[in-house]
Structure formats: C-alpha cells, structure tokens
Design goal:
Length: about 500
C-alpha cells in the first residue's frame, strides 16, 4: 500500500482522524493524530515529536537522558502498509510509525527501526522469520460498576504481607492466603508516595467477569459477547484469530492469532492490545494485559511463537524428520542463541516490575533457561505440530514473555539472539521433559539450566552485562531503555505492592 492508497481509503471511509502510533521504552502505546484534511502532508513530512518521550517511564516520569531532553525533534513517519480503519472507533484510522531524525535517517533509538534492521539481517542470511504473539488477558468490571449476580467476586484490599506471600507462591501451593479467602487489591490500601499521582476516576478496584474454572464452558458463555466482538474487530483489521479459550485465572482469556512477518507481528501486537481494551470498554469492562493482574491469580503471558523459513517461504527450515523432535540443526542453533542470551533478553520480553511476580518456578511461566518438547515450564518450548500439517506448523515458543514489553524490541531481540546462535553454531544442550524446578541444584547445574533474573533490576543488569545486546540494539537504544527501566524499578520499590498491582492493571 502507498500514500495514495491510504488517502483514497481514508476519504472513502469519511475518516476524521488518523492516529500515528508508536511504543515507548516503557512499553506504553502512545501517539498523535492528524485530521484527515492534513493527512497527505503528515504522511510526507511526519508529525513532530520531542525525543524526550522515549525517556518517559510508565509512570510518566521523565528520565535524565542527554539526547532526550527539551531540545531537538524527531518525526513520527507512518508506514502506509500498516494503515487500518478502526472498527471500534468511528471515523478513525491508524498507522504504526518509525521515528526518523531530521536528517531523514532512522533515529538510532527507534524500536521499530531496530526490528527492521534485524529482519534485514535475517534476510541476508537467507532466512525469513514468521512470528506471532499468543496473548492472555484479564476481563474485569470496575469496582463501582453493576455486575450480574454471581458472576464475580468483590475485590477487597489486601495487606502488603498478603500480597507478597501470594505473589511469591506457586499456583499449585495449597496454603491459604492470609485472613481473607479471596484477596485482590485496591488503591485504598495504597497511598501513593513520592509525588506520584493516581487517576482520580479510577477506584483501583476490579472484579473479574467470572470466577469459573480453567477452560470452562461457563466462562466461555460469560465472555461470549465481548470475545465475539473482539474477534470481529481483529478480523476487520486483517488479523486472523485462531484459537480461543478461558484460562486458569479468574476473568482470564486467551485468544491466539495467525503468524506473519516479524514487523507485522509486532504491529499486530499493538493492534491486539488496543482492540481488546477498546472493545472491552464498550462492554463496560476493563481489559488488562498486566503480567500479574491479581496477586493470587495466574499471570498473563504473551508467548512469542516463531519459525524459520527459506526466502520464498516455501520450506520450514526448522523441520527435519531425522531428528527425534523433528527439529533441524538450524532450529537447535536458533534456540541455543535464545537460551544463551535469555537472562538479558527477559529485560526486553518481561519488561515490567510486575512481570517478575509472574516469572516464578512452578507457575507455568518458565523461570529457567531450559527447553524441551511441549514443556510448559521451559523457557523455549518445541511446540507439537498439527496432524496433517506437520512441516507448516513446526515452531518454537518463547514462554518468558508478556505484554508489558515493547513488541518491536522483544521480537527484534529474540530474532537477533537466535541469529547469533546460528552464526556461532551453538547447540542448546539436553532438552528436558520434566519441570526444571523439580530438578536438584546439582542436576540443573549439570544441564546448564539457570534461574532467570528474579526482578526487573536483575534483568536490566543481565541485559547490560551481555555485550551482545549493545551490538544488536545500539548504544543509545540500550542506554535509554535501561535508564527508563531502572527508574521504574526504583519508583515501584518506593511504593507498596497494592500500588504496583493497580498501576500495572490499568496501564497495560
């Protein structure tokens, strides 16, 4: 699609506005909009943006990065191929943007341009990557909203000690939480400190739309109206829904979409998050992609599925029937690169303080640098193929990933790590078919299986201690991202757990 195609479609749809969207270093989807009368000029010259926006953390606290202060400008340049007419917002279109310097070159701190560079590098190696996110999200009613009787539980304040105990426990733990049999969170137990403000229109209380069982048909029926509208809205934007089911957590749902090229996969993640939240809002709900929306419920992952193909996308290069798992040598090498760099990679794929409430052993979220066939406690899972479509469906899954990430950075760094494994000819070691948490320390050490960082600060340290990431991301992108994320770790360390849960619930 080119500029003229976009202009014709915008005119035919009688659009009033077109949003120019980007994702910042805090994982927040932000943007500006142009009136349709000025769309041609904005597509040619972009929309101006202060580079300081990439120094904002998820609490809108500006960080001291010299290149991202009050002086200077970049341009949000829209990608015509990303143009969509929003089915949930009348007379509004949207495009995803690259950040371009005033010298007309990609800004070195632009996440989307980084992903483009990685895709080009893969192409130079004769590889075409397909990828998609597999998202989980929580549907809830705001605390003061009327809720059908029996459909959800009232959310109650919980103490810091209760939150901490629940957050670190495994989902299999049968020990009861403190005092209350069902504790969620509320801003009422969390007075913000250090001058951080809270949305006064948000009580901080949420009620899951149901408290039924995992994969329950009752939960399907409760969620049917909003899920149907979400599917229709995704399809209207060229995104193909594949599988849907209610997940383990109360109000938690999973809806997978079809794989595509990495840039479109990252764009689709932005569209997906925007669509689910907007459609849920129309149903009087709040949709949250927070990694750990409730302290005592299962976390929301955003697993990344990926496969390697030849340049013509006719042959799956991960497929080899001579192997016991039908995985090729290049597939193992790619996995080895991901596993080698995973301690730092999770700073980009599990990108929030809240992520590390989810990323715990025995939580089916993958807390170790392990891989194996259909091992849902392994960070890299060799997914079983579909009968009758084995080669086409061969793929691997990175489970250590959630929706607080900037998808351009997450997918780009994942691919770059895999390509590094191919270039070095690394092998991932022994696959495992047990929960790595069930192994002894000595057994894990023998298998070279290591615990992933336990918090965001540790992940950022691992990111910066691995020289690979500066070479891949570039100095400014790595430094600005790390500065923003370290500021988030510090800011939330000054607050209580209930504040953290609330802010992540609504922000993501």
């Amino acid at each position: 699609m080119n500029m003229d195609d976009v202009l014709q479609q915008a005119e035919a749809a009688n659009l009033q506005q077109v949003r120019f969207l980007y994702v910042d270093n805090g994982g927040i989807i932000r943007g500006k909009a142009t009136h349709a009368d000025h769309l041609r000029g904005r597509m040619m010259g972009g929309i101006g943006l202060t580079p300081a926006m990439q120094a904002m953390n998820m609490l809108d606290q500006l960080q001291p990065i010299p290149e991202m202060g009050p002086v200077g400008e970049i341009r949000l340049m829209p990608d015509p191929d990303s143009f969509r007419i929003l089915p949930y917002s009348p007379r509004v279109g949207v495009m995803m943007c690259d950040m371009i310097s005033l010298d007309h070159r990609p800004w070195t701190a632009c996440p989307r341009s980084f992903l483009k560079r990685v895709v080009d590098r893969a192409a130079a190696m004769g590889l075409r990557v397909l990828a998609t996110y597999e998202d989980e999200f929580t549907l809830a009613y705001p605390g003061k909203s009327p809720v059908p009787a029996g459909r959800s539980r009232i959310l109650r304040p919980c103490s810091d000690s209760a939150v901490a105990k629940l957050a670190t426990g495994a989902i299999y733990d049968s020990s009861p939480p403190e005092k209350s049999p069902q504790t969620y969170f509320s801003s009422r137990s969390s007075a913000p400190r250090s001058g951080i403000t809270v949305n006064p229109d948000d009580t901080g209380e949420y009620r899951p739309i149901d408290d039924t069982l995992c994969f329950s048909s009752i939960a399907m029926e409760v969620g049917a109206p909003v899920i149907a509208d979400i599917m229709d809205a995704l399809k209207a934007q060229g995104i193909s829904p594949e599988q849907y089911y209610p997940e383990l957590g109360h109000g938690q749902h999973e809806l997978s979409i079809a794989p595509t090229c990495p840039l479109t996969a990252a764009d689709n993640q932005v569209r997906y998050r925007e669509t689910v939240r907007a459609v849920a809002r129309q149903h009087g709900m709040v949709a949250s992609f927070a990694p750990k929306p409730f302290a005592d419920q299962a976390g929301n992952g955003a697993h990344i599925h990926f496969s390697l193909w030849d340049a013509e996308q006719k042959r799956n290069l991960m497929w080899d029937t001579r192997d016991r798992y039908n995985v090729s040598a290049v597939g193992y090498q790619f996995a080895a690169g991901v596993l080698r760099h995973l301690p730092g990679l999770v700073a980009l794929t599990c990108a929030s303080v809240n992520s590390y409430r989810r990323l715990n052993p025995r939580s089916w979220s993958s807390a170790y640098t392990a891989f194996g066939p259909d091992n849902r406690e392994a960070a890299v899972r060799i997914a079983s193929t579909f009968w009758g479509n084995e080669e086409q469906s061969m793929n691997m899954e990175l489970k250590a990933s959630d929706s607080s990430a900037n998808p351009y950075l997450a997918i780009g760094a994942l691919i770059a790590a895999g390509l590094d494994g191919i270039e070095h000819g690394w092998l991932p070691g022994e696959s495992i078919e047990v929960d790595p948490a069930a192994l002894s320390d000595a057994e894990r050490e023998q298998l070279k299986i290591h615990r992933l960082p336990a918090d965001l600060a540790g992940a950022i340290d691992a990111l910066n201690s691995d020289p690979f990431f500066e070479a891949a991301l570039g100095e400014l992108l790595l430094r600005s991202y790390s500065t923003v994320k370290r500021s988030e770790a510090r800011a939330f360390a000054e607050q209580d757990a209930a504040f953290e849960l609330k802010r992540h619930f609504y922000t993501f």
